[in-house]
Design goal:
- The structure is a single chain.
- The protein has about 230 residues and is of the alpha/beta class.
- The protein is built from 10 helices and 5 strands.
- It has 2 domains: about 140 residues, 3-Layer(aba) Sandwich (Rossmann fold); about 60 residues, Arc Repressor Mutant, subunit A (Orthogonal Bundle).
- Helices cover about 45% and strands about 10% of the residues.
- The protein has a 5-stranded parallel beta sheet with strand order 2-1-3-4-5, with helices on both faces.
- Strand 3, helix 3 and strand 4 form a beta-alpha-beta unit.
- The protein starts with 14 loop residues before the first strand and ends in a 15-residue tail after the last helix.
């Protein structure tokens, strides 16, 4: 089936939507039901990760993006990857992941809609975002207003070191878990503190770094892995 086959007959301006969610089939089914009366919006692709979606197509106008995925990515990673391919994103959340919403907003997501919102609200948000508009609900405004601007951009490896460190692991245990040398872990922690210093937070103690990691959304499954058992 070609891309043109997905366009409803007689519709000149169809917006193609991608869906990224761990519960892909359930979410797509719900959204198709919501959008059944909307010939101008077509769900063209769905996957359980942004990487998987982009391996299928980048010919979508918008991705409806779940916040916490099982591949270890963060909202910042995912929104940034989509932006690099010229694709907008709408955060689709249960509402309890404020720090993750902040990460997505900082990366440039166009807005947020809750999974518990009425269908007409979800549809309006998708349509607006698919046309390049910002979707700033009261909930999103509250989350952004509470943002301490406390999370620098960190590589995935540094994010994982920080997550483990903030979860109580020692430098030695982090080295074992990540198959690194203790010297490398120490150097990574120096780089992490340097990154936070760049946001105006110098010489952070462990407790301060732990709080910053939680505010930044880094202390989250699946970044965290328990200490190995002997």
């Amino acid at each position: 089936m070609s891309e043109n086959d997905l366009r409803p007959a007689g519709t000149a301006d169809v917006r193609r939507i991608g869906v990224v969610d761990d519960q892909r089939d359930f979410t797509v089914s719900a959204l198709r039901s919501y959008l059944s009366a909307c010939p101008d919006i077509v769900i063209a692709a769905a996957a359980e990760s942004v990487e998987a979606l982009l391996s299928i197509t980048d010919g979508v106008d918008l991705v409806v993006l779940d916040l916490l995925l099982g591949d270890g990515s963060t909202p910042f990673d995912n929104v940034s990857a989509l932006q690099a391919r010229g694709i907008g994103s709408l955060l689709f959340t249960s509402g309890e992941e404020s720090e993750l919403v902040r990460m997505g907003a900082r990366a440039g997501a166009q807005g947020m809609v809750k999974k518990s919102d009425p269908p007409e609200v979800v549809v309006a948000a998708i349509r607006a975002a698919a046309h390049g508009e910002s979707v700033v609900s009261t909930d999103l405004a509250m989350v952004i207003d509470a943002d301490p601007d406390f999370a620098p951009a960190l590589s995935p490896r540094l994010q994982r070191v920080l997550a483990l460190y903030a979860s109580g692991e020692s430098e030695k245990d982090i080295a074992e878990i990540m198959a690194l040398s203790p010297h490398t872990v120490k150097a990574y922690l120096v780089r992490i503190r340097g990154a936070y210093a760049g946001t105006g937070h110098d010489n952070m103690s462990r407790s301060q770094l732990t709080r910053a990691a939680r505010l930044g959304g880094f202390v989250r499954r699946p970044w965290y892995r328990p200490r190995r058992q002997s």
